[in-house]
Amino acid sequence: MLPKALLPELWTEILVPVCAVVGIVFSLFQWYVVSCVKLTADRSDPSSTEDGKNGHGDYLIEEEEGVNDQSVVAKCAEIQTAISEGATSFLFTEYKYVGVFMVFFAAIIFLFLGSVEGFSTKSQPCTYDKTRTCKPALATAVFSTISFVLGAVTSVLSGFLGMKIATYANARTTLEARRGVGKAFIVAFRSGAVMGFLLAANGLLVLYITINLFKIYYGDDWEGLFESITGYGLGGSSMALFGRVGGGIYTKAADVGADLVGKVERNIPEDDPRNPAVIADNVGDNVGDIAGMGSDLFGSYAESSCAALVVASISSFGNNHDFTAMLFPLLISSMGILVCLITTLFATDISEIKAVKEIEPALKNQLIISTVIMTVGIALVSWIGLPSSFTIFNFGTQKVVKNWELFLCVAVGLWAGLIIGFVTEYYTSNAYSPVQDVADSCRTGAATNVIFGLALGYKSVIIPIFAIAVSIFVSFSFAAMYGVAVAALGMLSTIATGLAIDAYGPISDNAGGIAEMAGMSHRIRERTDALDAAGNTTAAIGKGFAIGSAALVSLALFGAFVSRAGIHTVDVLTPKVVIGLLVGAMLPYWFSAMTMKSVGSAALKMVEEVRRQFNTIPGLMEGTAKPDYATCVKISTDASIKEMIPPGCLVMLTPLIVGFFFGVETLSGVLAGSLISGVQIAISASNTGGAWDNAKKYIEAGASEHARSLGPKGSEPHKAAVIGDTIGDPLKDTSGPSLNILIKLMAVESLVFAPFFATHGGFLFRIFS
After folding, report:
1. Which of 22, 106, 112, 669 gives 20 to 30 Å between its CA and that of 5?
2. For the chain, what is the radius of gyration of the CA atoms?
């Protein structure tokens, strides 16, 4: 009998939910602090005379310049309401369609998994240990369906709450910018932290409660219990796919339409209230970059946890019923919440930003501090939460592993995430030469800008791929596929901080838009632009994390699928596997083509509508007439709902069709092919788009002699930069981020349906053999 973990089972049962509740309470506290910034011009409000970190006692710039403060605040509140209502309306429409899909797919899961044993209610021999009896396949069908629905609902909730918080905070960030860039930064960052901690804590708590409730029925059958839990990851990622694709099409259709007509043709500033697409553009930031991203990272977290739990259940943890060691993935996430809580205090309470140049370093420090503290946290969890020695399932054999080896697996994933983040920052921040070179290429027009931007994106793939490769090699060498799964969890362990940094970007972007639409001074706009430029880089870092973790997660899920489907080796010399590899490698291109074309066709309608309004509404350019914002919002909504269905069906149906008609070997080839090509395209697309965006902002800011030589706004190099930015929009916000969901979702779906494919798969090959 192998030794058990130092941490008693009772303490594990207490610690995990307590850490989740601490995360929820901390997020509510951050929300309360943000709510102290009032969207009213009431001078008697105590918060307006309070001094301290939030700077309520400072003089307002507008008062010095003699601008009517009350009308500005009222205008900000009005714009915020319009953005919030637009985002809520879109998400409710999207969730109606997604809800229908959820019910339909839940029925498929039940029918397919129930048919494995002909809907029998008799117990059966366990898959991996035939000497023991496990619960019937029908139980797996029922509980997989329940966990799928729970994952889907939690994913939707994560995205919706994130959007509500972002739309609550955007105008408050704008108003705080009057008191200084540091005050605005704190509001935007606290709001991002609300979303980060809510998502991390909710994901952990729902998973923990689900495991304990399922355990009442399953008892000692941990193999069946954790196999049914994989539905949780499938639910999370399937909702994330529709959120990312739908939200991405919405936001980029509006963004491209607003930029092409407003900036290039009419030469008016970004977010000018005369532009009919401006409200739709700001709504899009919340439904795509916030709601979509929240669901996406929740999906990654759920899947990496599920992959680790499935492998652990057939290792010594599951065989010996060591509950503390079994919940090692949840203990890592619990520690992550506590570490991120300490890290957040560094940005909001310990140090204060006083100048624009301090913004980006403060956000980078969040990543460094959380990684360093988390390394110590992982060491502690590995020491008390794991036995000194144990065995891990490794494709039919049991591999002996020490607890310090598993610590290294998690740590290598954590630090690989930091490396990917910093490489992404180097290639997308306008503080470094790659983006400055892209900006300089705009001197000779849009064509050279596009060439330089594409080259930058391809080059930016090199180091992240090596980081992922080293993580895979180290973690697999030490602890087989379980090592890869916990390496992915290591990369996602600081998800609360990562999401806070990520959500900060769209909130700052919205704040700048509100400042422009409310007619606030150019100094306020400069401050919000500085926040937004840092936010663009951090958003790219967040996407790097998401893509890196997706690669590790999908490989771990792939390993679990291969084991569950009874495949001993995936031989690339057999035709069944080769055709799968080729088709799998093609899928990310097909998917990207669909999403890019969707953005293009929606943007075309948007451009035509914006042009029509400028040409037919008298006094619109002069600012004496109001544009019809509602029509542009409707164009984006209709296009995104209609266009998100085909890419979603491609991803969801591929594993089912390949598994049923061609069998598990061909499906394993498809999964491997899509993973290998999808990661490369996702990184290059995200970084190319991010670089073009920041090259445009570099010219607009004019902060250096070189930047001033390319400007000002409206110059030929600036117009070339705007065109590059417009091309990059669907790459960095629609196709790129959605691809990491494609590779994860196909892998987790294959794992959930593995019993069905192992029993009934390869229909065509059976007919012709």
Report:
1. 22
2. 26
